[in-house]
Structure formats: structure tokens, C-alpha cells
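Design job #97: recover the sequence.
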């Protein structure tokens, strides 16, 4: 099957906004045996949108359109689909009521222009948007499907996975089964090199890597006539992946580090406290974003200055003067002080130089010490990360979680 992807938005054409939706969609479609033979970007002009949709639909089995579903005058995707198909736009009162409630929670009342987001081409299937106001929809035309989703990736991606993937599966006579392996501690290019011919020679299953700011997802997709056949195809390849890069695998079912740590703490009935310097609370924020984390996460300190390390954690002033705030000794003193203050089963400390300033020849930007305490065991690990400030902070957070994960896995 062939698909066309159309991304709508003048800001995409001018380069004001970087277009990323087509990359995500093409990769996802590929996992289900659908070939994306063209990606098209068009500005918010009906005289360009309508003929482009017509062309794409004539040369494809179906088209995916993202963007142009907002409340402003230049959001014209609904109108374009209506003109192309000859189907009138109809106001869906249920969607309208939902939009009024959503918008009214942030504003005093709901501006009338928001109502246009409830206009749907007649007889279209509505795709509920649980991540924003504008719903998507699917319109049938000439025995083909026009699938329309919002432009913001944070809305488009989950809507595609929730609503569109089941439809794509119905369009194919094959069964597709995915294995999502989460990997940390090795970069995307190094991972591909380690996997070698597994990446380049496999046609069924296929292997694809997705880098995400410090971690990598390896998605293995098998196709067959049944789920049992897919499992038989997947199993030996997954085993080969484990043999080649097993030391870096953190999850075989797509679970992220913070979720794994939460589960391990809960299963062991253990509590955690953290003390952060260079990450400025990002570790605590990642943990507290998880539902139910309060049962295992006790407290977090942001001890950014030397004085705060002394006052909040009991780090000796002499330790900082002699070894520096960014040192193995200070990281150790931080977790020991945190242990005494919180009396938790587990403690983490992070101190480092996130940059871009503050580095020296002996202590360069990217130098980070992470202290890990589980029960009576105390260790400090040194890292030398590279990249900008955001990347260094993110890698420090992920590394701290991974070190704790490894320590919790070996508890007797």
C-alpha cells in the first residue's frame, strides 16, 4: 500500500517551524508495511491545498493530513476537504460543547471562533482528541480515506497511535507485531554498528532505531499471517539483539527508566530521596511526573550553592574547599548527609558542571559525579558527558536513574 503525507501550515513552508510530523508518520507506517511515496508541505491557502490533496489522493491508497485544524481564519484544512469531496461541513454539537468546557477552564468564556473546530465534513468518522481541543476525522472519498489529524506533535502522535493504527491494521491482511526495546548507555550510531547486519539485512522482522535525547528505542517489527507466526519471527532476532547489546538494554517492553525505578522501589518496599546540584531539580521533576510516585519518593533537595550543600545536607565546608563542589568526595558527602536527613532506603546525589561556563582543564564542562546509596551500600560514579547544557543535565538524570536501577536489580 502507498500513502501520502500532507503537512499544512505557512509556518512550515517558510521555515519558521520545523516540520517533524512526516518523519514520525512515515516511520510508523513503514512498520505496518505501508510505503510513504511522497511528503508534501503546503501553506494555508485553499487554492493550493485542494488540488494538492486531489493529486495525493489519486496517486495513493490513502492520505494523511496534519495541521490546519485550529480556530483561526487561516486554519483551512476542514474547508479544503469539504471542497475536494463536496461534503458539507456540519457543526457537531457534542464536540462544540466539549470545546466550550475546555476553553472556558482557561478563559472567561469561549470565543466564538473556537466553534469552527467542531465543523466536520458530513458522514466523516470523528477522532477524539484527548490532548487538545480540535478533533481529527476520517473522510471517505472515491473509495479512499482522507485521514486528518491536528498539527501539534503532542496531539498528533498519540491520536495516530490510538485511532489510526487500528484502522491501518484493518486495511492490511497481514498481522504486525512490535517489540520495543529501550536502550541506554550507547548512542544510536554505535548501537547500529554493534548490531551490524541485523540492521541492514533484515526484511522481516525490520529493525529501526529512534534516538530520544540520551536514550535509544529499538523497534523490531514482524509481519505474518498470525500473531503466533510473528512471535516465531521475532524471537530469534530479539535473542541476537540481547547477545550483542544486552548490557545496555533497560526494558524489553518500552518502559522508560523512571517507570522501571518506580516499580523496583515499590516491589522492594523501598523509599528514595535525591539531592541535586547541576541538574537543578530535573531528577525530582521526572520522578514526580509519575502517578503514584508518592508511595516511594520521599523528598528532593536542590542544593545548588556550596552553602546549601553545607546547610541542608551537612557537607563539611572543608570537603568543598579541599576537593571542590564537583568531586567524588562531595558527591559522597551529599548522599551520606541525605541519608541521615531522610532515613530513606535509597539516596541519589548529583553534582557537576553543566556548562557552557565554569569548566577548567582539570574539571571540564560535562564532568558529573553521581552518588548512589542503596541500604548500606554507598558508591560514587564519575562521568564525562559532552554536548550542550540541556544534554548534559538530561544525561546526568538518566544516568542516576540507571545506576539506581542496576543497584535495585541485585538486591538479595
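Job complete. Output follows.
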Amino acid at each position: 500500500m502507498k500513502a501520502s503525507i500532507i503537512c499544512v501550515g505557512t509556518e512550515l513552508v517558510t521555515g519558521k517551524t520545523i516540520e517533524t510530523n512526516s518523519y514520525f508518520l512515515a516511520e510508523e507506517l513503514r512498520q505496518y508495511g505501508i510505503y510513504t511515496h511522497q511528503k508534501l508541505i503546503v501553506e494555508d491557502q485553499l487554492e493550493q491545498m485542494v488540488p494538492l490533496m486531489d493529486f495525493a489522493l489519486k496517486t495513493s491508497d490513502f492520505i494523511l493530513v496534519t495541521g490546519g485544524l485550529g480556530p483561526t481564519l487561516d486554519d483551512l484544512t476542514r474547508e479544503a476537504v469539504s471542497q475536494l469531496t463536496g461534503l458539507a461541513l456540519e457543526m457537531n454539537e457534542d464536540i462544540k460543547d466539549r470545546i466550550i468546557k475546555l476553553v472556558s477552564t482557561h478563559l472567561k468564556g469561549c470565543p466564538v471562533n473556537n466553534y469552527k473546530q467542531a465543523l466536520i465534513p458530513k458522514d466523516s468518522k470523528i477522532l477524539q482528541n484527548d490532548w487538545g481541543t480540535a478533533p481529527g476525522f476520517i473522510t471517505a472519498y472515491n473509495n479512499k480515506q482522507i485521514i486528518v489529524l491536528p498539527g501539534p506533535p503532542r496531539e498528533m502522535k498519540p491520536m495516530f497511535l490510538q485511532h489510526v493504527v487500528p484502522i491501518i491494521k484493518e486495511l492490511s491482511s497481514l498481522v504486525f507485531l512490535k517489540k520495543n526495546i529501550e536502550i541506554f548507555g550507547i548512542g544510536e550510531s554505535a548501537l547500529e554498528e554493534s548490531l551490524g547486519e541485523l540492521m541492514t539485512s533484515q526484511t522481516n522482522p525490520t529493525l529501526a532505531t529512534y534516538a530520544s535525547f540520551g536514550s535509544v528505542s529499538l523497534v523490531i517489527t514482524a509481519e505474518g499471517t498470525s500473531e503466533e507466526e510473528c512471535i516465531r519471527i521475532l524471537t530469534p532476532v530479539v535473542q541476537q539483539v540481547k547477545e550483542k547489546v544486552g548490557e545496555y538494554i533497560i526494558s524489553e517492553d518500552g518502559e522508560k527508566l523512571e517507570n522501571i525505578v518506580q516499580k523496583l522501589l515499590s516491589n522492594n518496599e523501598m523509599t528514595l530521596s535525591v539531592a541535586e546540584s547541576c541538574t537543578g531539580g530535573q531528577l525530582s521533576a521526572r520522578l514526580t511526573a509519575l502517578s503514584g510516585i508518592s508511595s516511594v519518593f520521599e523528598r528532593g533537595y536542590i542544593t545548588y550553592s556550596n552553602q546549601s550543600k553545607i546547610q541542608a545536607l551537612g557537607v563539611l565546608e572543608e570537603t568543598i574547599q579541599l576537593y571542590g563542589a564537583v568531586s567524588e568526595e562531595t558527591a559522597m558527602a551529599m548522599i551520606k548527609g541525605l541519608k541521615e536527613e531522610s532515613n530513606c532506603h535509597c539516596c541519589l546525589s548529583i553534582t557537576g558542571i553543566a556548562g557552557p561556563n565554569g569548566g577548567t582543564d582539570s574539571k571540564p564542562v560535562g564532568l558529573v559525579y553521581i552518588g548512589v546509596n542503596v541500604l548500606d551500600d554507598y558508591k560514587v560514579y564519575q562521568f564525562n558527558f559532552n554536548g550542550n547544557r540541556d544534554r548534559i543535565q538530561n544525561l546526568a538524570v538518566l544516568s542516576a536513574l540507571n545506576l539506581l536501577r542496576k543497584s535495585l536489580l541485585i538486591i538479595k
